[in-house]
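subagent[fold] <- orchestrator: predict structure for attached chain, return tokens only, no commentary.
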Amino acid sequence: MLDTRSDILLASQEILGALDAVELHQLRLSAEESKIGGRARFRCPLCLQPLGLRGGQGSVRLDAQDRSSNVALHFTHPRDPEHHCPYKTNGDFTPEQYEAMKYNGLKETRAHRMVKARLWDGLRREPLIDPGSLRVERRYRGKLPDTDWRRPDVQVCWRGMDLVFEAQLATTFVTVIAQRRAFYRRNDAHLIWVFATPPGRGLRFTTKDVVFNNNCNLFVVSERTAALSIERGGLVLEAWWPVAEDRLDGGDQFRWNSAMVTLDELSFDESAGTVYYADHEAELEVARARRDEARRAEQLRRLGDARVLPGSSGTLFLESDSHPGHGAALDLDRADGVRRHVHAAAAARDSAAFDRLLLAFQARGRISRLSPADEEERARHFEAAICALISLEVGAPAGTHLENLRAVENWIWNSHRGYYSLFLNAVSVWRREQQVRAHDPRSTLSAHVHAFRSSRQGAVTARAFRQDTSLHSVFRIVFPELDAAMDRIEAVAAKRSR
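subagent[fold] -> orchestrator:
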């Protein structure tokens, strides 16, 4: 039956089996009172009629303390001869048809209506949807020769792509899930399953059917995403995906990453039929490679052959305008010292301090060596990327004469595009979206994001859009908040290099 308090389908034994005789009678009376008051707690998932609790002789005892009792409670439909529910009439339906009827019945729950309303309100604010294409609970017809159809919760044509949204609030509909995925893939539509709540410690079985087959990405709409959709002028979803390292042991209990994302930030994989924000499978490959590398290093250490580059740890002595004085010490393994150094260099606009820091990390073997011409170019990118990220961290331009964060974004896009993905991730991590958009009357930010995402849809990324990960070892020390973002960027880079 459908428990309207939680909008979740439950077997009767899940409700009744854990209660003693007193609790069962209390539930029986409260269910009847709520039904009489027009707010029935329990409903049939097929016909949505209110259900009552009735007792009679049966094999399940009501009172667990009374060994002689043989009274059982069960859920019943109203005694209405005009009402014909398949559950009552035992109609000639296939299991798939029963599943579809239950699925459609759940579309009328309060939680489901709220999800649809929030999707519609966010999508209607999108500037790039085709006029008249946004529809709720309307038929989506297959392209000939496919004469089948479905009725998604919400559908829209965005940037020339058909997007269909289905709220997944049910518990036992793997057949429906599989059929809908197959139908929309046949008809070149992108199916996005949406949930009303974030993942807890454990996922429901059929939630796993959806999430684990969508690059482990789960999308949520909530009161918070609804407010952000209004603020940003387009649909915002809360994306969740597992921490890759938690899958290495083969279990299904994960910690979860999350981010507020727009449609522009999603990837649409037509071949796999997935829509995702984080490429979890690529992240998993990186995590496995790191684990294997750590194991090899441990094996070498045990064999007495742990090879460490000369000077790969210890203290570096620097002298610069931002750290005056002969022999000023900077331990490259101490994040707080390195962070203070780059913040001071940015405040003083001391390019020489950035150069010396870059050379120091290179001397320690943390950064690969390049040709002199390439070294000069990388040093320029290094200073710019550090200053842009500090600007986002503190909420105002740092290390530059630029007026605002919008100008900083434009600077990175035009001159340092190899770090644009990290910049966008940092905007999200430090929640600077509103500030970056504040001075953007022509929506050039949206155009940049769209061009960047589009460049990454194919199997090969154009040279102008390739992301440089060679400086991540420094960025990880200075900006530990961006660790997860750099993991994702490296995972995508590794995947595209194969």
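orchestrator: received. Logging for downstream: Residues 95-285 form one domain. The longest strand covers residues 161-167.
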